[in-house]
Amino acid sequence: MRILSVADKCHRALYDYFDPQRWRDIDLVISCGDLDPGYLSFLVTEINTPLIYVPGNHDDSYGKNPPEGCDAIDGRVIEIEGVIVGGLGGSILYNGRDLQYSEKQMHRRVSKIIRQSGKLGGLDIFVSHAPPRGIHDLPDKCHNGFCAFRELIDRLHPKIMLHGHNHEVYNKKDRETVIDGVRVINAFGYYVFEV
Q1: Domain annotation for the chain: domains and CATH numbers
Q2: Pairwise CA distance, residues 17 & 112, whole Å
Q3: Parallel, antiparallel, or unpaired for β 71-72 and 51-53?
Q4: Spatial CA neighbour of 192 closest among 23, 15, 32, 56
Q5: pLDDT over 70 (residue 170)
Q6: What is the pLDDT of residues 46-61, one digit of tens each?
C-alpha cells in the first residue's frame, strides 16, 4: 500500500501545482492535523482514494466544518485493505484550549487505542498530531511530545507512527527515526511511504 501523509502546511505540489498523474499510485491519504478542511476535501476528491485524519491542536473548526468525504480516526482503530490504523489527535496541554491534553488524559486515550487494537489483532500504523516524547519533539512546552505515545510504541510495536505538529523538518534524516523497529515519521508538508 502506497500512502501519502500530510500535516501542518498546504504544500504547493498538492494544491497550486496539483498534477493528478503524479499521485495516481496513492492508495491512502493520512492527515496528521492542522490543515484546512477544504484542503483535505480537495485531496480526497482529486486523488480519489480514502483519506483518514486526526485533528491537530488548531483544528477546532472540524467540529462544525469537517473535511468532506474524509474519515476521522481520532480515538479509533480501523482496518483499511488489511492495514490496521489507529489515531489520536491534539497536542500537549500548553494554554488550555481545545484539542490539548495533559499527559494523564492522553494516557487514558492511549489505553483505549491499545484495547481496540487488541480486538483487531494489533496495529500497523499509529497516527497522531503530536510526536512521542523525545522523538522529533522540541523543548518548548507547546511542541513537547507525549510519554503516553512511547508507551504505545513499546506495547504495540506498530510498523509506523506518523505525526505532525513540529515543523522543523529539513531532510529525510530529520523526518524519520527508527526506534525499537518502529518508523516514526514527521509528516509535515507531505511524505510518501509504503506499507
Answers
A1: 2-194 (3.60.21.10)
A2: 40
A3: parallel
A4: 23
A5: no
A6: 999 999 999 999 999 9
Beta bridge partners, 184, equal 161, 177
Three-class secondary structure of residue 65 per DSSP? coil
Is the Cα dihedral 192, 79, 59, 165 positive or negative?
negative
Residue type for position 182: V
* Cα distances (Å, whole numbers) of residue 133 to 145, 153, 163, 191: 4, 11, 12, 21
| Terminal-to-terminal C-alpha distance of the chain | 5
What nine digits make up the cell of 101? Answer: 491534553
Q: What is the mean pLDDT of the chain?
A: 94
Could you please report the per-residue DSSP string of 138-194? -SSGGG--BHHHHHHHHHH--SEEEE-S-----SHHHHEEEETTEEEEE-SEEEEEE
Question: What are 63-108's pLDDT values in tens digits?
Answer: 899 999 999 999 999 999 999 999 999 999 999 999 999 999 999 9
